Amino acid sequence: MLITTFWMALAIVLYTYAGYAVLVGVWAAAVRGRRPAAPTFEPEVTLVVPAYNEAAILADKVRNCQALDYPADKLRLLFITDGSNDNSAEALAEFAEVQHLHTPERAGKSMAENRAIRYVTTPFVIFTDCNTVLNPEAVRNLVRHYADATVGAVSGEKRVLNDGTASGAGEGMYWKYESFLKRCDSDIYSLMGAAGELVSFRTSLFKPLEADTILDDFVQSMRIVDAGFRVVYEPEAYAMEPPSFSLKDEWERKVRICAGGWQAMSRLLSLFNPLRQPVVAFLYVSHRVLRWSLTPLLLALLLPLNAALALAYGGLYSLLLAGQALFYGAAALGWWRAAQGRPAGPLLVPLYFTMMNVAVFLGANRFFRNRQPAAWAKAQRATAP
């Protein structure tokens, strides 16, 4: 029983982080190109920018939006600064074309988006974070996919600017891997959750979210998938942003995301049903659910299981135990070097991997104890691009 449990746990861990990538990579390559290229499509669209105490960068964000390669008469700009107590209003006042919404109460990003959508009169809406820079073709590359009536949402790509720090290199490395999986999921059928840095929706499909929603972008896009529409991933529409200011800030961000993952799983139960949408259920469980639930638990169990087997049988199990010890030792050393302001180098891989999985336990704890507010403390980022 101990041997069987160990090898099954190891198989699920390897599948989650490597086997799934290989499988969807081959699957996506086999189906890629079957759908015709998206044509030129230029509908009216509203670009919504939620911002909380971002006065210092609002003017730069507006200028970035003005520089987008899209007909100016078809692109509306809406900034919402609910809860901000800086001089956001003054910063936006010089831009007559910007519609500015503000109330002094802060209720979180989900509620701000719920309020903003009431002012959107265009058939498509795009949300983007204030601290990002969009490439000029971003809007054009997003909305062209809506010529296909089966597409309910389109997500852009998040690109993290590597500033040489451990948090920057780690976050950038993770997003390259994640972007590969997103591209494959989208090519196979649909993206399994959009990134809020740059995401668009058919306005008619946008449904108000619960006030306590943590991962607004993920839940909104997956409910659209649940309704029978596809979410397309468009890597040629991208949002560039600086990395977390420090490893500590990145750690806090990961814990919040994991708390949001547990909340999302509890609210998207119908996606687990393989009889409704078998491909969706497979992609959702493989790409998202395993990472947020079973796999981190199995990783934690592998160490004591391996130790017990090494004591009983030695040989291969001793080698595997030594490998685990070296891996987690490297992660600890990488954390220490990063805390000292020194580059983690190759230690970054075990460090970031371990961080992600430990964060799941803390995130789950926050979710079950209802300790993760929707209006979280604004993450500190490195200097804006």
TrEMBL record:
Pfam families (UniProt xref) = Glycos_transf_2 (PF00535)
Q: Where are the transmembrane segments?
A: 6-30, 297-327, 347-368
Q: What SUPFAM superfamilies would the database entry show?
A: Nucleotide-diphospho-sugar transferases
Coiled coil, from the record: none
Question: Which branch of life, at top level?
Answer: Bacteria
Ranges where the Glycosyltransferase 2-like domain occurs: 47-170
**Keywords for the protein's UniProt record, in alphabetical order:** Glycosyltransferase, Membrane, Transferase, Transmembrane, Transmembrane helix
Q: Which family does it belong to?
A: Belongs to the glycosyltransferase 2 family.
Name of the molecule in the record:
Glycosyltransferase family 2 protein
Organism of this sequence: Hymenobacter negativus
